[in-house]
């Protein structure tokens, strides 16, 4: 379709070619391209071919780079191979649907301070759709996970588009403000406010629509290197409503904190609110918010969870004698003895455990 502003009708990739006939034979017979035009007839200087979603213009008088064409295939015998065309263009064959690789987490203590003067200037970066990102686990635990503190400073519509992520696990927890999001097969606008959470199952289409002034959310995704794809063919909201649909074996969750019960937690003197993610992900992850009710001044403990991420939502505490406050976070590696102490009365902690079902030992 023509661009309404620039009136662009088509696009071509120009490649140098000293021998039109030889290159045509290669692109036609070996790669399956189809000739669209060739001229002049008596001594061809230009040949235009189409195939696999691209248009190639072979030009004898063009002195640019020969370039590389990346072709995506499902043929295991082709994937990972390459060819060189007579004109010098490299042809590489890649997997059309590569499997999602989730590296195992490295064992590392990570503490991220919101008010870290040593990193203050470099903590926030501008990411997709103009959102501000603060990386809470710079090492990504060896590529296993990315945890981001995301902010949209100004209220109003968000410059987003319908898209999806190829992920193993992804959740959005509202820290401050509110945000409206549209989700595939889940009706109209969904709003989260502080304490609420979305579980975004693999490849569910969604679009961030509008945010309040000072919106802040915590996003946790596995693996860290996952791809985002726009979906230009879907409009949201779409007419189907399928609340029980699964996406990659997981269900969409819109957890609303208001009215949800607090239950005894695994640590004496604490209670927790379940964010309903364990069952929806079939044990891929478990997410809870905990708070003290009659907590001891100090607790020495360890756990055996491969990836345990914690974000302070409110109040203060000490972790091995280090002060933590709202906006700070930490990853506690498995089997590392540590001490949590000096909890303020208003302390609340977001905990993301991957996978669900781990053991904590109080020492």
Can you walk through the features of this model?
With 363 residues, the protein is mostly beta strands. It folds into three domains: 13-95, 2,3-Dihydroxybiphenyl 1,2-Dioxygenase, domain 1; 110-255, Jelly Rolls, CATH 2.60.120; 263-362, Jelly Rolls (Sandwich). 6% of the residues lie in helices and 43% in strands. The protein is built from four helices and 34 strands. It has helices at residues 20-30, 120-123, 140-143, 277-280; strands spanning 13-16, 34-39, 46-51, 54-59, 68-73, 82-84, 90-95, 110-112, 124-126, 132-135, 146-152, 156-157, 163-166, 169-176, 179-183, 190-192, 197-199, 206-211, 215-222, 227-230, 246-247, 250-251, 253-255, 263-264, 270-274, 286-292, 298-303, 307-314, 316-319, 322-325, 329-331, 338-341, 348-354, 360-362. It has a seven-stranded antiparallel beta sheet with strand order 8-31-28-33-26-25-24. A seven-stranded antiparallel beta sheet has the order 9-10-11-19-14-17-23. It is elongated and about 90 Å long. 30% of the residues are buried. The mean pLDDT is 93.
Characteristic terms for this protein:
single chain; 363 residues; mainly beta; 2,3-Dihydroxybiphenyl 1,2-Dioxygenase, domain 1; Jelly Rolls; seven-stranded antiparallel sheet; 4 helices; 34 strands; 6% helix; elongated
Write a compact overview of the structure shown:
With about 375 residues, the protein is mainly beta. It has helices at about 20-30, 120-125, 140-145, 275-280, and strands at about 15, 35-40, 45-50, 55-60, 70-75, 80-85, 90-95, 110, 125, 130-135, 145-150, 155, 165, 170-175, 180-185, 190, 195-200, 205-210, 215-220, 225-230, 245, 250, 255, 265, 270-275, 285-290, 300-305, 305-315, 315-320, 320-325, 330, 340, 350-355, 360.
């Amino acid at each position: 379709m023509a661009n309404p502003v620039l009136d662009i009708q088509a696009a071509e990739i120009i490649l140098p070619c000293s021998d039109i006939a030889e290159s045509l034979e290669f692109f036609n017979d070996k790669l399956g391209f189809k000739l669209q035009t060739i001229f002049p007839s008596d001594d061809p200087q230009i040949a235009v071919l189409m195939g696999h979603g691209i248009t190639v213009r072979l030009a004898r008088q063009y002195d640019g780079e020969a370039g590389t064409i990346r072709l995506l295939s499902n043929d295991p015998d082709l994937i990972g191979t390459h060819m060189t065309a007579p004109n010098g263009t490299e042809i590489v064959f890649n997997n059309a649907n590569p499997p999602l690789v989730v590296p195992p987490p490295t064992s590392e203590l990570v503490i991220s301070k919101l008010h870290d003067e040593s990193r203050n200037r470099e903590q926030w970066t501008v990411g997709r759709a103009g959102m501000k990102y603060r990386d809470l686990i710079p090492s990504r635990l060896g590529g296993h996970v990315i945890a981001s503190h995301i902010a949209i400073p100004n209220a109003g519509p968000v410059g987003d588009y319908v898209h999806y992520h190829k992920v193993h696990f992804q959740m959005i927890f509202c820290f401050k403000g509110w945000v409206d999001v549209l989700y595939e097969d889940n009706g109209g606008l969904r709003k989260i406010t502080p304490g609420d959470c979305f579980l975004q199952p693999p490849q569910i289409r969604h679009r961030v629509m509008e945010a309040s002034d000072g919106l802040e959310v915590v996003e946790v995704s596995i693996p860290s290197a996952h791809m985002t794809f726009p979906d230009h063919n879907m409009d949201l909201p779409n007419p189907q409503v399928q609340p029980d649909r699964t996406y990659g074996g997981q269900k969409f969750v819109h957890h609303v904190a208001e009215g949800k019960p607090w239950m005894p937690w695994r640590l004496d003197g604490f209670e927790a609110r379940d964010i309903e993610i364990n069952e929806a992900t079939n044990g891929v992850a478990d997410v809870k918010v905990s708070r003290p009710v009659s907590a001891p001044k100090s607790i020495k403990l360890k756990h055996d969870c491969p990836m345990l991420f914690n974000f302070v939502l409110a109040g203060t505490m000490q972790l091995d004698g280090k002060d933590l406050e709202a906006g700070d976070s930490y990853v506690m590696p498995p089997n590392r003895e540590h001490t949590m102490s000096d909890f303020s009365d208003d302390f609340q902690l977001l905990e993301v455990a991957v996978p669900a079902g781990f053991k904590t030992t109080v020492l």
